[in-house]
Amino acid sequence: MSHNNSSLSAGNNSSSAKRGLGNLKVELLNEQKQEIREAFSLFDMNNDGYLDYHELKVAFRALGFDLSKREVLDVIHEYDTDDRNLISYENFFQDVGERIVNRDPLDEIRRAFKLFADEQTGTIMLRNLRRVAKELGENLTEDELKAMIEEFDLDGDQASTCYKRSNVVTFHL
Ligand SMILES: [Ca+2]
Known about the structure:
Blueprint: H1 21-27, H2 30-43, E1 50-51, H3 53-62, H4 69-79, E2 87-88, H5 89-101, H6 105-116, E3 123-124, H7 126-135, H8 142-152, E4 160-161
Helix pairs in contact: 1-5, 2-3, 2-5, 6-7, 7-8
Bound molecules: calcium ion.
Calcium ion is lined by residues 44-46, 48, 50-52, 55.
């Protein structure tokens, strides 16, 4: 089978400093692409195929990006070409995909920590962490999970607490 006349030559002349959509599609994991797709369709409340300001803000948050009003507006203005203040799926994919690829793994852990730490004690136990890892689709072994606990477990009580890691993150339960 021979393909003549392929238009997919190397001439992908994106002048933008951003990653091309094609690169993002390669770099994102399938689950991440699916997450993006799901967030978009879930939060496109009026099903018009676009996200407005409010829809965009919650869609970002659902994917773990808590953007300020200003930041959300910046995103809209960056992509909005017709003053409707709406973001298409492709724009959303590009922007949030970029963020996901550039995400500091520690941010992900902080977010998870915040979500899963025990509210009473402010600590996260092995069993919580197991749940976190599963939620995040991380395939961590029991040993890796234990290593994570130990890394932050300064007083040896087998739980990691947020204040012990206050050099990295501060949050209040
Ligand atoms: Ca919409």
